[in-house]
Amino acid sequence: MENISVFLAKFWGWYLIIFFLVLSFNPKRILQIIKDLKDEKFAILVAFMAIIIGLLNILFHDIWEGDWRLIITLIGWIALFEGIILFIIPKRAIKWFDYINIKFIQLIYMLLLLIGIFLLNMGYGIVIF
Questions:
Q1: pLDDT of residue 1 exceeding 70
Q2: The whole model's pTM is what?
Q3: What does the domain layout of the chain look like in residue ranges?
Q4: Number of DSSP helices (H) and strands (E) in the chain, helices first
Q5: What is the pLDDT of residues 70-115, one digit of tens each?
Q6: Cα-flanking dihedrals φ and ψ of residue 54, to 5°?
Q7: CA–CA dist 98, 102 (Å, integer)
Q8: Distance between CA atoms of 53 and 73, rounded to whole angstroms?
């Protein structure tokens, strides 16, 4: 199970840092994504992708220990719930995503970066805690 944890730490670490960099260099991209979510076909596609990613993450890594692996598990559950909510109540979900984006965008950016760095550290064992 440890190999899966390390693999997912590397995967999610790189993903979060890349997403942070994309949003940092092109902050209007997130506004475009929220605008595109108003198109029902795009919203359904994103919902299915989030559900698939969340389910795969949970099926391979559902570890509820009080250490760094919990972050990976929570990412999977958050992806699953976001996909389900977006699929069931898309209009309310989009309004909620838009509200969170407006109110907490700087906090979200910093969390993406810090969690990404932390997971990469745990995956590659750069700094031992």
A1: no
A2: 0.87
A3: 2-124
A4: 5, 0
A5: 999 999 999 999 999 999 998 898 888 878 877 787 788 889 899 9
A6: -60, -45
A7: 6
A8: 12
Residue appearing with tokens 């909510």: 85
The residue count of the chain comes to 129
* Eight-class DSSP state of 27: T
Distance between CA 36 and CA 2 in Å, rounded? 38
Q: Contact 91/76 with Cβ under 8 angstroms? A: no
Mean pLDDT of 61-65: 94
Query: Please, are residues 123 and 10 in contact by the beta-carbon 8 Å criterion?
Result: yes
Mean pLDDT score across all residues of the chain: 90
The residue written with tokens 């389900």 in the block is 84
Phi first, then psi: give them for residue 27, nearest 5 degrees.
-65, -20
| Percent of the chain scoring above 70 in pLDDT | 97
